[in-house]
Amino acid sequence: MGFWARLLKGGKREESGAQLDNFVEDICWPKVHYEEIPGTLDLGWYYSKNKDEFQMAKIAERDRATHLYVIGATGTGKTKFLEFLIQQDIEKGNGFGVIDPHGDLIEDIKGFLACYHHYYQDEEVATRVVLIDPTDPNFTVTFNPLEKLPGVSVAEQTSELVTAFRKIWSDSWGVRMEDLMRNSLIALGEAGFTLAELPHFFTGRDFRERVLSRVGHAIAQQYFRRFDALTDRGQVTWIEPVMNKINAFLSDDRIRQMFCSPRSSFNLRDIMDHKRILLVKLDKGRLKDSADLLGSLLMAKIQVAAFSRSEVPQHKRTPFYLYVDEFQNFASESFAILLSEARKYGLSLIMAHQTLSQIPTELRSLILGNTGIQVYFRVNREEAQLLAREAFEYSGYEVKTVHYLRPIFWTLGEEWEHHIEELQNLPPRICYAKHKIEGGIIPLQTVEIEPPWEILEMAEDEYHEYLRSLRFGEKYLVSRKELAALPEQRLARESKLEKPARGEVPALAIEEKAERHLPPEVDTKGESRHRNLQNLIKRVAEEKGYQAVTEEPTPDGLGRVDVSLERDGKRIACEVCITSPDEQELSNIEKCLVAGYDTVISCAPQKRTLSKIRAAISRKLKPSEKAKVLFLQLDELFSLLEMEATAEARREGRAGKEQAEAPIATTEELWQERVWHALRHLDDRSVLNQSPLARLAYIQRLAEGKFRGSILVRGLALREALIGCIDRIITEANTEPGLETTCHFLRLVKEGKTSPQ
After folding, report:
1. C-alpha 342 chain-centroid distance
2. Do 161 and 287 belong to one domain?
3. What's this model's pTM, rounded to 2 decimal places?
4. How far is the C-alpha of 677 from the C-alpha of 530, rounded, in Å?
5. Is 346 left (phi over 0), alpha (psi -120 to 50) or beta?
6. CATH classification of the domain holding 584
């Protein structure tokens, strides 16, 4: 039987409005039963049918470690429910934090603190508070998310911050942006700089050199050596997407001034360990999109601070309760880790939002499965169908009505629909609370909380004046006038740093190692695998005499080529394949063909990846396009570049002599000579050491260097056959007119009756 049937004792649902008024009036009287039980947290009133009275529902404080989840449409009473819990934390002296994307909740909490200060004469309550309010025109806290925390590595801290940026900038996030942000934040963090100096770090080469001279992180040093080797145009291409985003964020003076100091005016670890109160007022109506990024950065830093308590024995980790309203705005990919691991470090989450559709399916399943206390206010039908399965147990023995002393039960379908309607039609301030640890679900009426000015017996104007006089968190605030001059002072001070002499290797520079064309582990920690492969191909090609450019724009300006190679007027496009879908790889190849490249090479480090791409793409290309496309692994590509360079040098050396002596040959003779020459080189040790596809690429290049027009197309069409399978070569060659002698020659080679030597 549902909540209203129990509460109204079978009365008609149409009469619920009037009876609810009486119900609310009744429970506000002292006649309701209330019992103070140490070590518990009050949730709200529930009706005990056995005792015919309203009692206070409670949970054990220790159960809060399993997290509390609140969902309900706007205006249903979620905020007042949170306020009641927060009020109890204030009275008990618990440490807690509140992240509020609207601001009203923070103002109400300040009122509760004012009441506590007034009645208990607690002069320290205001000093326990750290108030982060970017909309305050005169004062603000300073916050440097790059500031080092004891016991936390730079890589660990940066990883959480990058995750926060990825969540907010997901619409334009990519591998290059992540690589740039990760290494930039590592460099600035190690050197003791701030997020506000990120644009200057990108655009000022001298400043970047001074910063990097303080950095000992090998990967970051290596990354920016490659970055500085780019042309100005290439650097702009790399940094432009990040600059657009970060400048939009820092263009707001209220935000930029928060980030301009190298030292934060508050310590999140200290707040947790010493039971302080963190209030974060993110007025999204005034801060717009900056509110989400600021909240995400704070959440990332809170997670890092909580996990840094690992060195403290578990029984000494002071509980800290974090309330996050509209948490989906700040829940990055690492939120799943926070949800499953936070309780071990004394951090308990209280999360509230409006609909399940606001969060990804994976995160939704994790929340519903890993939160011990769940509270459901009114939701729409789609949400109710999902939550009813989570909240209720279906027995088939719920009594629908009693007819002539005989109970009539709901069918399973009717019971299911009944619970869905219950969640759909809950009035304001009525909810269901489910305790997933001990089991059971009960309907609750949230507790009515008087406005602070009524508690203090003040007029509203007098109350607001009193509230302003308290100056919550004043010891952590800095004047905005002081912060406005800070960037100029810091730049002047940093300009006096000793600049490394030209050509001098900074301290802790990376030791150069012998170069390998195909390192077994190209996915270096902290680096983009795709970018690493691009740079590797570029470096090897330049050694072989090619002009190589990464991310070369196409003539139409609508795309970029991963690596563009050019030598002696011949242009080669290399597209690196890692995990992109087949459609994207096809688009990349077509883009290069349209751009007029003589050859397009689709390159992948894994043979399986390459085979999959070749099978998917070859069917969609025209024969004339297939003739220009190669699918090679890395070692095959490098062998091709080596052999091409060698062959080109030899051709140039004997070009005059060949032109003078070469007789006019028939197509049959030319083709047989090419195949014989290819087989001869396949027996050469240096070629045999290469993979079959590398040999194939070499053969193709030999053919391409001799033949033009239809003969070239014919040679390229047979490239798959020239891997070493003579039977297949014969089969393919038999389809070409005028190649009978070649087939006979190959049969003799196969039977051992002649030698390619």
Report:
1. 19
2. yes
3. 0.62
4. 37
5. left
6. 3.40.1350.10
Percent of the chain, pLDDT > 70?
Answer: 72
Query: Which residue has 């050396």 as its token pair?
Result: 653
* Domain carrying residue 692: 665-751
Last residue of one domain, picked from the residues 620, 637, 654? 637
Burial class of residue 597, CB neighbours in 10 A (0-12, 13-18, 19+): buried
Which of 637, 656, 676 is the endpoint of a domain? 637
Which run of H or of E encompasses 126?
Answer: none
Note whether 536 and 522 are within 8 A (CB). yes
Q: Are strands 68-71 and 373-376 parallel, antiparallel or unpaired?
A: parallel
For the chain, the domain total comes to 3
Output the CA torsion sign for 502, 503, 507, 510: positive
- Regarding whether 584 and 702 lie in a shared domain, the answer is no
CB proximity list for 639: less than 8 A, separation 6 or greater: 690, 691, 694, 697, 698
Range of weakest confidence among 220-224, 244-248, 751-755: 751-755
Q: pLDDT tens-digit profile of 422-467?
A: 999 999 999 999 998 777 889 999 998 888 888 888 898 899 888 8
Q: Are residues 262 and 305 in the same domain?
A: yes
Query: At which residue do the structure tokens 């330049």 appear?
Result: 542
Nearest C-alpha neighbor of 113 from the set 91, 92, 85:
91
State phi, psi for 691 to the nearest 5 degrees. -75, 165
With H, G, I as helix, E, B as strand and everything else as coil, classify residue 170: coil
Q: Which two tokens stand for residue 289?
A: 């999109």
My answer on whether 596 and 707 are in the same domain is: no
Are residues 500 and 506 in contact, defined by beta-carbon separation less than 8 angstroms?
Answer: yes
Whether residue 440 is contained in a domain is answered as no
Cα atoms in the 13 Å half-sphere on the side-chain side of 522: 21
Residues 585 and 718 in one domain: no
How does pLDDT run across 316-365, given as a tens digit for each residue? 899 999 999 999 888 877 788 888 889 899 999 999 999 998 888 888 88
Is there a domain that residue 16 lies in?
no
Q: Is 486 part of a structural domain of the chain? A: no
Q: Is the dihedral of CA 78, 80, 81, 83 positive or negative?
A: positive
Q: Is residue 515 part of a domain?
A: no
Tell whether the model's pLDDT for residue 291 goes beyond 60.
yes
- DSSP string covering 685-701, please? HHHHTS-HHHHHHHHHH
Whole-number CA gyration radius for the chain: 36
Query: Coil, strand, or helix at residue 4?
Result: helix
| Cα 288 from Cα 442, distance rounded (Å) | 39
Are 456 and 94 a contacting pair, CB within 8 Å?
no
Residues 581 and 697 in one domain: no
| 194-226 residues labelled b (16+ CB within 10 A) or e (exposed) | bbbbbeebbeeeebbbbbbbbbebebbbbbbee
**Angle, helices 692-706/709-717, rounded to nearest 10 degrees:** 170
Helix 154-168 and helix 175-191, axial crossing angle in degrees, nearest 10: 140
| 548 DSSP β-pair partners | 565
Q: Are 308 and 269 in contact (CB under 8 A)?
A: yes
Residues 263 and 148 both lie in one domain:
yes
Q: Which residues contact 165 (CB under 8 A, 6 or more apart)?
A: 173, 181, 293, 296
Quick one: CA torsion of 313, 318, 323, 328, rounded to 10 degrees?
Answer: -10
- Residue given tokens 């040959």 in the structure block: 665
Of the listed ranges 5-9, 63-67, 189-193, 195-199, the one predicted with least confidence: 5-9
Q: How many CB atoms lie within 10 A of CB 581?
A: 10
Show the CA angle centred on residue 470, arms to residues 465 and 475, nearest 5°. Answer: 145
Calpha distance 201→210 (Å, rounded): 10
Q: Are residues 616 and 681 part of one domain? A: no
Mean predicted confidence (pLDDT) in 204-208: 91
Which tokens in the block code for residue 476? 């952590």
Cα 488 from chain centroid?
33
> Which 3 state secondary structure label does DSSP give 292?
helix
Alpha carbon distances (Å) from 561 to 256, 592, 637, 686: 37, 7, 16, 31
